[in-house]
Design a protein that fits this description.
By secondary structure, this protein is mostly beta strands. The protein has strands at 4-11, 16-22, 26-32, 39-48, 51-53, 58-59, 63-72, 75-85, 88-102, 113-120, 123-128. The chain is built from no helices and 11 strands. Strands 5, 6, 7, 8, 9, 10 and 11 form a 7-stranded mixed beta sheet that branches. It has a 4-stranded antiparallel beta sheet with strand order 1-2-3-4, with no helix packed on it. Mean pLDDT is 77; it is low at 102-117 and 121-129.
Length: 129
């Protein structure tokens, strides 16, 4: 697995480690029960290498790196990434919300909660600089 600049955290609610990283064309997510043996998370590719702004504009960056997850009260709240497009550099902040996953095997489809995951909202705020 090609990973670089991994930001790691432990989720006490799920009893798992998570790591967000950048690869050549995407930001990815891996998980581990012990912090040593890593595997692809269910949502392995979190974000392709493009930035959708609130106004609908799409930025196709030359580079998108250095992912970091900001936590508040033990919960992931914001994914930040460093972006370079031409001579301009940005820090992009992507809000994270918790999302309930549903599964036909979890009983009483679609109403039963199987597990929760994070949803990375794809409209972003860019900080110039």
């Amino acid at each position: 697995m090609d990973t670089e600049d991994m930001s790691i955290w432990y989720d006490e609610n799920r009893n798992r480690f998570y790591g967000v990283f950048h690869a050549h064309n995407y930001i990815g997510l891996v998980t581990s029960v012990n912090g040593t043996d890593w595997e692809k998370a269910n949502e392995f590719v979190l974000k392709n290498k493009e930035i959708l702004l609130e106004d609908g504009t799409v930025i196709g960056p030359d580079r998108m790196e250095r992912p970091f997850v900001y936590h508040e009260n033990g919960q992931p709240k914001v994914l930040s990434v460093a972006v370079k497009k031409g001579e301009e550099s940005y820090t992009v902040l992507i809000p994270i919300i918790e999302n309930e996953l549903r599964s036909p095997t979890s009983g009483n489809w679609p109403g039963r909660r199987q597990s929760s995951a994070w949803c990375f909202i794809m409209t972003c705020t860019c900080l110039m600089g």
